[in-house]
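Tokenised fold entry reproduced for absentees:

. . .
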Amino acid sequence: TFSNLIVQNNVSTYDGGGLMVHSSSASLSGLIVRNNHSIEYSSGGGLTFADSQILIDDIIVENNTSTHYGGGLALNNNQLVDITNSSIGNNFAGNSGGGLYIETSEINFSNLNIINNSSGLTGGGIYLNNSTINASNLNISNNSADQEGGDTDYGQGLGGGVFASSSDLNIDNCSINSNYANQRGGGLYVV
């Protein structure tokens, strides 16, 4: 259990610039995660969760960067992740998932703001692949995909708010507005 922590100004050359949880169960509440960086071929500028079960409540994830995936958070191969009453904003990923990068995971969101995040290629706010998302009271605003200089080998500017591939989306009472994609799906791109 992690509670009432400030995780800031950290650097990792691989995953989890601020914090990484691997093959564990964890509960996080009252965290501020800001100004962390994962560099080189990396994911999760702020936080990375892999092969885990995670409960998150009342956290702020802001101003984090990753050279590749998940500027704010990267979620890989997780059994279940619950995120409630939280904010993910002003994060950047050079490739995909400026706010969140979600791969092969089951995610529940409630009362979550995903605002002002950006990526070089896809999913300015959220990138989803082979995952299930159940969301209520979600605000996805002012995110963008394609911040000059993204790696164009994989396509560029798809899903300013959300990019979803081979995933199940169950969304209720959510707002997706004022997002930008250089090519397709300013708010939402589903393939």
